[in-house]
Amino acid sequence: MVTSGSTDVPSRPGGKAARTRRLLQRCTLDVIAETGEFTGEVVAERAGVSTATFYAHFATKDHAIEACLAVCFEEYEERMRRVESIEHLLDAGLEATLAAIVTTITRLNEEYRALLRLARARIQASHLLRDQSRSEEHRAFAATLRFVQLGQAAGRIRAGDPEVLTATMRTVVEGLDSWTIRAHPGVAEREVPELLSRYLSPPAP
């Protein structure tokens, strides 16, 4: 299987090439987490393969960053599905659900901080990373929009243009990776969920 935007060698799912690619992804993530950067040579040595093998899977460093971001985005999608859902909203209530969403995003930002910082430094110069980022933003917006629409239908989120409510919510949560949030943990723990809850809650009867 060939990953979009890369020049990876075709491989069967679970085949040797696929296993090598996953190993290189993991080693690249580990090196970035430790040093904030990476080279094909260092990752290949960590993985116990040749540098040529690294570049057979990832034609450029941007292709390797793209592959690592795909791991991050898959993890984001899986974790967010558990909390950004109508089931969680109905079971736990709006503010608790928003707190779970904020906590999930904050933890992922922390776990992948070095990778996200490296990707941001490259994004303006890389069509590949820019396209990947836009695609992920659209996917995340669509997931939040569905959450808002279902919450409105259930009477747990106030009436209003769901796209505007979604855009506001996404603007707030996308700021959770800022230095200000990291320097003041209570903002993410208490203030942001409470702020969003007041914004999204239906008026009291």
From TrEMBL:
Domain annotation HTH tetR-type: ranges: 18-76
Tagged with keyword DNA-binding: yes
Source organism superkingdom: Bacteria
Residues in the DNA-binding region annotation: 39-58
Keywords tagged on the record: DNA-binding, Transcription, Transcription regulation
Record has 4Fe-4S as a keyword: no
Annotated PANTHER family: HTH-TYPE TRANSCRIPTIONAL REGULATOR RUTR, MYCOFACTOCIN BIOSYNTHESIS TRANSCRIPTIONAL REGULATOR MFTR-RELATED
Protein's recorded name: HTH tetR-type domain-containing protein
The organism of origin for this protein: Actinomadura vinacea
